[in-house]
Amino acid sequence: MTAIVSVTNLRKSYDTGFEALKGINLEIEEGEILALLGPNGAGKTTLISTICGITVPTSGIITVGGFDTVHEYRAARSLIGLVPQEINLEPFETVQNTVRFSRGLFGKPRDDARVAEILKSLSLDDKATAKIKELSGGMKRRVLIAKALAHEPRVLFLDEPTAGVDVELRKDMWNVVADLKRQGVTIILTTHYIEEAEAIADRVGVISKGQILLIQDKAEMMAQMGKKQLRVDLAQPATTIPAALAHYDLTLEKDGNVLVYTYDTRKDRTGIRTLLNDMANAGLTMTDLQTQQSSLEDIFVGLVKDNA
């Protein structure tokens, strides 16, 4: 696939000496959904703001659709839609006029049919003439997306798009994002919700302290970095792990009632059958067992912890 956004050795420093971005290198492929995960202060919003031209980079090169965001900023910016974290809308304006105005800001001719189409795709068509102040928080988020799509961008940045939105509306928003991808829009979102990245992203990036720790296909990341655990319920609690089982990666949990075996899913043999035989020989009786795959949250927490 072709990279529609390219970031090379991007740095952003402030007069205080604080370096918010430390040599970021990033290629975003056309038509993909990339989720950027990171703790507060990691540099997610600074990165998006710099790509979108809101923040001036200290050094480095950014191109969008082949256009340099500093030297060809008008052409680059015309390809970008941005949905910010903050809901900052004129409360007494109507939904359709709000979207029309955003389209006009980019020099696009008035096109009520296109505006109506955008509102319909976001389930806002029945709110077209409603004033912003009459809308719920979730609907206002949709208006922000409609504004960002008004000039028909090829790249859409969503900065914490579901912050403060309840679970039901969050899942509705995921459906909206999936529909936009089907229309060919490239989407980059920052999020604190691990399940959001796990549900809708094609690739996941982890950013911490102004540095990209990892960017990888979501499924590959889970397969390569995720561990699997076998949890064995014991008939009688164990105070220690028998010496005969010392060579296994085992821990005891729940006051010795559960034996946890961690193994690598990439290996040809898991060692489970041998473990169960050795447990029986060691006098441990099993009542139940279950397997558990590491989640994206486990991987994320581990990466950020390693970088602390």
Automatic annotation (TrEMBL):
PROSITE patterns: ABC_TRANSPORTER_1 (PS00211), ABC_TRANSPORTER_2 (PS50893). Pfam families: ABC_tran (PF00005). This is ABC-2 type transport system ATP-binding protein. The keyword Transport applies. Residues 5-234 form the ABC transporter domain. Coiled coil: none annotated. GO terms for molecular function: ATP binding; ATP hydrolysis activity. It comes from Loktanella salsilacus. The keyword Nucleotide-binding applies. Keywords: ATP-binding, Nucleotide-binding, Transport. InterPro entries: AAA+_ATPase, ABC_transporter-like_ATP-bd, ABC_transporter-like_CS, ABC_transporter_ATP-binding, P-loop_NTPase.
